[in-house]
Amino acid sequence: MSETKAPPRDLNRFIEAIPYARFLGITVDQKGNEITTVMAFDHKLIGNPLLPALHGGVIGAFLEMTAIIQLAFETGSAAIPKPIGLTIDYLRSGRPLDTYARAQITKQGRRVATVHAEAWQDDRSKPIAAAHGHFLLKTNEDAVG
Amino acid sequence: MAAEFRMTPDTMMAMKDMLMRHVPHMHALGVEIIDAATAQAWLRVPYDEKLIGNIETGVIHGGVITTLLDNTCGMAVQLAMNEPTSIATLDLRIDYMKPATPGLALVAHAHCYKTTRNIAFVRGTAYHTDAEDPIAACVGTFMLGANRTVPSSVAAAKAALEATAKE
C-alpha cells in the first residue's frame, strides 16, 4: 500500500455526486486498485414482484455505472464518460439481494474505451448479467449537445 | 393458466395506472403507459433530478433510458402474445445517439416484430417528442415461457378485471 505513488481517487465521493447512483443505492468497495461496486437491495429496484426479481433495466444501469466508475478510476478524469453503446446479456434473474459488479477496460483509446462488466449476487461464479460497452472519453472537441 | 385472458392494447390502457403501480421500480421512476397497440407500447418517464447522471449538465443517466427501453420492450412482447406468457430479457443492445435534454420527459416506443416458440425479437427507440429524432435505439431478445409465474403485469390486470366483473 505504501508503494502506491498516486493515491486512488475517492470513488465514493465521485459516485455520491451522481444523483442516479444515489437513487439506485450504489456504493464502491475499493481495495487498492480493485474496485467492486455494490448495489444494496431495496424494494424499489424490483421489476417482477411475483418472482420477485430485480428490474432488468436496473441491472443494466448498475453495469453501466460500474463501467463508468472503473473508467473514472483508471483514467483519473473527473469528467463522466458518455456511453455510446451497451450490450447486456441477462444470465440469471436478479434475486432480492445485494448485487456486486466489477468492470475491466478491454481497450482504452484516446477517444473511446471498450469496457466489460459483470454482476453477481451471492456466488461470484454465477453471474446474473454481463455487459460490454463503448464509452466516449471527454475531450474538448467532443462537447456533444 | 387463464387462457381466456389476453393482454390487449385496450386492456393495457384501461389498467395502465395499476400496471405501473404494481411494478415497484416503474412506480419509483414515475413511469406511465401513454399508448399501446398490437405488439407495440409507448411509455414515458418524467424528468426528475434524482435521475441525473451528470450534475454539471443535468442530463439524465443512460441507465434510466436502459430501464425505460427494457420495460417498453417487455410490454410490446406482452402485446404480441395470444395468451399470458412469462418473459425474461435475454439480451438488450442500446445505442446512445445524443444526450437527453434536461427538463424534458423521455418517451420510449417498442415494437415486437417477430415471435417464435421460444424467443421474441424487439426493437425500440427513446426520444422526447419526435420519434424521428431519437436519443437512443435498442434491439433486444426475450425468452418466452421463461419461468412459472404469469407476468406480474398480466396477473395484476387479470385480477383487476375479475374484481370489476364481480361488482
Topology:
The complex is a heterodimer of chains A (about 140) and B (about 170).
Chain A: H1 11-16, H2 19-24, E1 26-31, E2 34-39, E3 46-48, E4 53-54, H3 56-75, E5 82-90, E6 99-108, E7 112-120, E8 129-136
Antiparallel strand pairs in A: 1-2, 2-6, 3-4, 5-8, 6-7, 7-8
Chain B: H1 9-14, H2 16-22, H3 24-29, E1 32-37, E2 40-45, E3 52-54, E4 59-60, H4 62-78, E5 87-96, E6 106-115, E7 119-127, E8 136-144, H5 152-166
Antiparallel strand pairs in B: 1-2, 2-6, 3-4, 5-8, 6-7, 7-8
Helix pairs in contact in B: 2-5
Description:
The complex is a heterodimer of chains A (145) and B (167). Chain A is of the alpha+beta class and 145 residues long. Chain A has one domain (11-142): Roll (Thiol Ester Dehydrase, Chain A), CATH 3.10.129.10. Chain A is built from 3 helices and 8 strands, in the order ααββββαββββ. The longest helix of chain A has 20 residues, at 56-75. Chain A is globular. The relative contact order of chain A is 0.18. Chain B is built from 5 helices and 8 strands. Chain B is globular and about 50 Å long. With 167 residues, chain B is of the alpha+beta class. Chain B has a single domain, classed as Thiol Ester Dehydrase, Chain A. Chain B is 31% helix and 33% strand. In chain B, helix 2 (16-22) packs across helix 5. In chain B, the strands form 2 sheets. A 6-stranded antiparallel beta sheet of chain B has the order 1-2-6-7-8-5. In chain B, strands 3-4 form a two-stranded antiparallel sheet. Classes of the chains: A alpha+beta (145), B alpha+beta (167). Chains A and B meet through helix 2, strand 3, helix 3 and strand 5 of A and helix 3, strand 3, strand 4, helix 4 and strand 5 of B. Strand 5 (82-90) of chain A pairs antiparallel with strand 5 of chain B.
